[in-house]
Structure formats: structure tokens, C-alpha cells
Hints:
By secondary structure, chain A is an alpha/beta fold.
Amino acid sequence: MKLMDVLGKGFTLIGQVDSARTVDMGAILNAVKSMGNVSAVIVSEPRGMLGVANTVVVSGLVKKETGKEVICQLTCRDRNRAALLSDVLAAKMLGIDSFLVTDGGHPKISDTPQAMAVFDLDSAQLVQMLRHLSEKGETLAGHSIVGKLNIYVGTMAFPVASPIEVEVKRLERMVGLGLNFMVTYPTFNIEALNRFQSETKRLGVPVIVGVRMLQDVRDARRLNEDPRVTVPPELIDSLEKAEKLRGEEKANARLEANISFFEGFIESIKGKGFAGCSIYAPGIEQAVSQLASRLQA
Amino acid sequence: MIITVAKSDEEVKRALEPYRNIVVVGCGTCATICRTGGEDQVKEMVEKLMGWGKNVLASMVVESPCDVRIDRRDLRRIEDEVKRADAILVMSCGVGVQAVGEASGKKVLAALDTIFLGEVEHIGRFLERCRECGMCVLNETEGLCPIVLCAKGLMNGPCEDMINGKCGVVGDEADCVWVKVWERMKSEGREEDFLRVNPPLDRSVKVGAAKVVW
């Protein structure tokens, strides 16, 4: 089922998997398969890591091997407008037509800070380019494309951004360009999410709430270093308790800490006007499927 | 103002390695303000070179080494020394280094790194303000240049790295220029102007080896 047919029909669960610095698709495919019955998968770039397998190719392989609907992240960081166009055309050939467009993190705060920061286009201009391709069958420079593209384009939204009014205005600008959906940057702050929902409701674009599961207590502490994220102390506590266990018991306790926390989290945002949830559970993708069955029960 | 900083002694020493007879040229304009190529810095450099066993034939501060006409005029005063020199060490921006090379026909070496086009807040505090893109966008961005003040040069910000109104890339408490643009628009009741989409920049305007001729 196409992404846009899913969004807006009740609360949907989608998964997220990062591309990696690898030549082996096995681990990525296993991660996606263990997510179970999610309605789509975002193939993203790991934050702060430059030079991973092209998300377009990874998206195409995920789609081919799992049959899932895929949303491919495209950033403006490494590619000029021509390279972005190349990737979008290639994506279409691989059956990918949904994109999550972001500016992309600056190389300076990555593992390859010496790399040139491209940003030939910004995310708004990339949305514009994609809409133009989709609606007019032309590039921004007016060159026509052979064949039809029917593109869905979303962007990342930041509900805890401050000042929030600038972020809402930025998103409104993108909606004016034909944005189809938004995915929020992972947050544990329900209050901020609800405020964000009430401020962006008028824009009429489905909002998917980004959720980040935690591998273990170290992962939680690392994530807490991001000034935009505060991991709730009760989640850190239950992950800390898991550390006292061993082997399978420890792994199960970590999963359970996540699943029980996010079950409550998702229940409390359901019915608040969000289109669904995108669950990013790096290394513990089976938690996505377990959480999904818990939510259905 | 063209903002420069001194290269390390090691780097200057390495560049001068093959040469013994040296002329040192400073800059009476930007590098004097930056305290990288004025009278005092030229004097210090001469002493340093002598300490490294170099034969310094002459030194002078040229009023504006970026102007080939002024180089020709000023270097005439040390014509013989320039003729005998193996190399001229120029304490100016990259433009000055190349112009002195053109005016003298001599091997030139750079003693400074050229950092940016900047505003002088006071001596010792210089702030980058322009990247000479060749298509000034200040009229669209409330008089603040996003090409240089935004770490990503975004024309339609802010981005994911804006944290509490600050730039998470530049750090050092640098303001997010797009939040500043928003605040200026808002203070004049023009919030809707923020929705305007600035088009992609035309990169063909800037291809290198540019000329303005009339």
C-alpha cells in the first residue's frame, strides 16, 4: 500500500533503519524484517556519519527484498542539485517515490569534518525541485524528464525547537511548496508534541511522531547529550535495572523497558491528531514488532 | 576589510628553505589593521629571518600591495634589492602576494593566511560578513548574509542544528542567522515575509578567475 494511502487513515506505525558503512545488505534487511508488520520503513542516514551506502540503493533493496513501502531520506549535505536529481531518478527506477528531505547535519559535526559541505540546495528548494519534477515532469532548470514521477515528499520537524514559532513558520513555508508529510525529530516530550500538533494542525499535513528506542543505559546517556533530547529518568532507571541481569534476561529486560515505556507514550499521543509513529530502534528492531503487537492487543 | 592571520613559523621557514636573499613586504592597509603585516610585524619578521640565517636585503610596508600600480611605485625605492632577492616574503592577503609577484616578476611567498572578508568590531575582533558570492542577497534577508552567517549557507533556514536560537554547528554562542531574520521581520509586523522561498543560487555567477573590466 502506498504511503499516502496509509497516512490519514488512522494511526499507523512505521519503522526506521539507518544505512551503514557496509557492503553487506544482510544486517539492514534482517533489521527491517524483524520490525514485523510496519506500514512503511524510513531508510535514513546515521547522524554524524558521512559516507554510508547510498540510501536510494538501500531503499530499493529493502523494497525489493521485503516488499515494504519505503521512505528514502535525502539530504542536501553531500550532493549538488544535479546529483540529487540523479538519485531521485534512480530511486524511481527502483520503485521508490517517497522521500524524507532534510538539510542534513554539517560535516563539521560528523566523523569526517574535512569533507566539503555542499548545500547547493536547501531542504525547501529540494522540496520545490521534487514537486516540480512530480507535477511538471521538469527539472528546476526546465529540462524535461522521460517518464512520469509521482513523488511524495516529507521533511523532519522539530517540536522542541526554540523559538518554536520560527520552526512552525519554516514548516509552513515548506507546506506552501507542496510538502506531503512531516516526521518529528525523536522526542520524549509529550507536552511539546501536543503543543506542536495544535500549532501545525492548520497546515493540514500529516504528522508522524518520531520515537527513538534505546539499546541500553549507555545509549540513553549518549542520547541525552543531544540538547534537544531529554530521556525521562524513569526510562533510564528501568534500563539501569536491566544492567544488573545477565545474558538473555538482560536483553529481555532492556526490550521490556522500552516496550512498556513506549506503549504508554504511544497510547497517550494516539487520538491527538497525529498520523502515526515512526519507530527508530537501532540494534533492537525486534522491539518494534513486539511493541506493535502490544498496541494491537 | 580582508582579514588575515600569521602562518606558523614552521610553515614560513619551510617555504623559505631554498632561498637565502630575502625582501620582506608588508601591507599598509588591511594587514596593518589586522596586526599581521604592519610596520611592527615586518620588523619582527626581519629579525626572525635573520635568526634563521637569512640575508634580508630590504623590507618595506607597501601602502596597498593588492594594487599592482602601487607595488610598482613603492618597490622602485628598493629596486636593486628586489633585483638581487631570491624571493619576496609578502605579509598581506593572497591578493597582495600575487600582485607583488606580478609587479616584481619575482618569486613570492605568503607569510599570512587569508581568512575572510570581515567587519572590524575593534582591533583584535574581526567578524566574517561576506563571501563575495557575486549575487548579493542582503535585500531578501533583512541585511544579514545567510551565505556566510549560516554554517550551511542555507537560503531558507533555519535547520535542524538551530538550538535555542543559536547555531549548533558554529558553536561559540553564534546566533542562528535565520532566527535573526525572523526577529527583524517580526519586529516590523512582516511575519508573512518569512514564507517567501528564496530560489536556489546561480552558481554559474562564480566560476573562478573572475574579472571586472570596463
